[in-house]
Design a protein that fits this description.
The protein is mainly alpha-helical. The chain folds into three domains: 8-167, no CATH class; 181-286, Cytochrome Bc1 Complex, Chain D, domain 2 (Orthogonal Bundle); 303-413, Cytochrome c-like domain (Cytochrome Bc1 Complex, Chain D, domain 2, Orthogonal Bundle), CATH 1.10.760.10. It is 40% helix and 4% strand. The chain has helices spanning 8-11, 15-27, 37-47, 50-54, 93-102, 117-120, 125-136, 160-167, 181-191, 197-200, 241-250, 260-268, 275-286, 303-315, 317-320, 338-341, 346-354, 379-390, 402-413; strands at residues 67-70, 73-76, 218-220, 223-225, 356-357, 369-370. The strands form three sheets. It has a two-stranded antiparallel sheet. A two-stranded antiparallel ribbon has the order 3-4. Helix 5 crosses helix 7 (125-136) and helix 11 packs across helix 13 (275-286). It holds the Pfam family Cytochrom_C.
């Protein structure tokens, strides 16, 4: 989930099937439950974003081998093609279900939660059988993958029993009868196959979800995933439900554009969901109350705000405008950006230092980019311009200093673009 890659990887070997199901989704009125089992499995594999981990960019679909960064080291995603020796071809349906929804391999070994079985457990057995049917329809690929590359003692899988006891609760999604069908569908997608909490819910030192901070933003792989509750300052409070659905479907809306890990999630997953499902996710997320609290803006006449104002007018205003409003679906509105105002400024700092490229999708094929300023601005100047952006036009966020920028600059230096 590190870098944007072409969705063509996912299409290889199943182009005809993809075309049928995608045309249904684009029609805006199709129900995934009406698909054939293989079509439904393909759709569930997309909503579950399986390709993001199990396909190496440019490699064979679902053949594994992609390193997944965790705080404890890298885990390599396994081969899930129907190859009998190196994939899942010899697995029974029961064994496949056990891995996906219970985190247990056929030999009884525990999986690591880099495989989000704690979310996939929300799916039904029929859902998982459909995914298996789809994977079985693909070409088998012989590719031996050594998945566990963690250092001692994290390489001892038996320790996962403790993790599961603390953080894993098996069980299918249960609809809330007091809520609408759309809300329940959104809740299922967010907490189940789409596993949004894997990135957007803060983690404990053991890597488990802090459930009291559900979807309020987290740090992973050199990025800060934003708060996606309906919080006014740091979340989606300034987005309409239509804005959320448009962002998921096209990667762009009147306020923001998907970059970094989210660009990949849009490219491989959410842009291929039905309109009903993106609207359902939007309805659910917009129902979640925010908890960020009130922040006092930095004084407009402070040294950092004055310096940042000058830098912004010189370097940023040509695209984002003097008032920070940007251009809808082209240049993001920094005045309304929850990422910009996040208490964790990692992503904002990274984008100024290294630039960013937004995702291109069928709905919004133009993928505007932001140039890098890391070569031009020193750490103090980056901090100043971000302090100005974060605390202007009605916004408010904690001050950033040069040390924060130095940390991100150092961390990203060894990472790919």
């Amino acid at each position: 989930m590190l870098e944007n890659k072409s969705v063509a990887v996912l299409l290889a070997g199943s182009a005809a099937l993809w075309l049928v199901a995608t045309q249904r989704a684009q029609a805006g009125g199709s129900d995934p439950q009406e698909f054939t089992e293989i079509e439904r499995g393909r759709y569930l594999a997309i909503t579950s974003d399986c390709a993001s981990c199990h396909t190496v960019p440019g490699g064979k679909p679902f053949a594994g081998g992609r390193p997944i960064e965790t705080p404890f080291g890298n885990i390599v995603a396994p081969n899930i093609t129907p190859d009998l020796e190196t994939g899942i071809g010899a697995w029974s349906e029961e064994a496949f279900d056990g891995a996906v929804r219970k985190g247990v391999r056929p030999n009884g070994a525990r999986l690591y939660p880099a495989m989000p079985y704690n979310a996939y457990t929300k799916m039904s057995r029929d859902d998982v059988d459909a995914i298996r049917a789809y994977l079985n329809s693909l070409d088998p690929v012989s590719n031996v993958v050594i998945a566990n590359t963690l250092p001692f003692p994290f390489n001892i899988r038996a320790t996962m029993r403790i993790w599961d006891a603390l953080y894993f609760k098996a069980g299918e999604f249960r609809p809330d009868p007091a809520k609408s069908a759309e809300w329940n569908r959104g809740a299922f997608l967010v907490d189940g196959p789409a596993h949004c909490g894997a990135c957007h819910t803060p983690k404990t030192f053991l890597g488990g979800d802090r459930t009291d901070q559900y979807l309020q933003g987290s740090y992973l792989q050199g990025w800060s995933a934003p708060d996606i509750t309906n919080d006014k300052r740091m979340g989606l409070g300034e987005w309409s439900a239509e804005d959320v659905a448009s962002y998921l479907k096209t990667g762009h809306n009147r306020i923001s554009a998907a970059t970094g890990p989210m660009a990949e999630a849009v490219s491989l997953s959410t842009s291929h969901m039905t309109d009903e499902d993106t609207r359902a996710i939007a309805a659910y997320l917009k129902s979640l109350p925010g908890k960020a609290g009130i922040e006092t803006p930095l004084p407009a006449n402070s040294a950092t705000m004055s310096a940042g104002n000058a830098i912004y007018r010189d370097q940023c205003s040509a695209c984002h405008g003097i008032e920070g409003k940007g251009v809808a679906k082209l240049f993001p509105s920094v005045a309304s950006s929850s990422i910009v105002r996040s208490n964790d400024p990692t992503t904002a700092i990274r984008m100024v230092l290294r630039g960013a490229r937004s995702v291109g999708t069928r709905g919004e094929p133009t993928a505007p980019g932001m140039p890098s300023y890391g070569w031009q601005l020193d750490d103090g100047q980056v901090a100043a311009v971000l302090n100005y952006i974060r605390n202007s036009w009605g916004g408010a966020a904690p001050a950033i200093d040069a040390r924060d920028v130095s940390r991100v600059r150092s961390d990203t230096a060894a990472r790919p673009d």
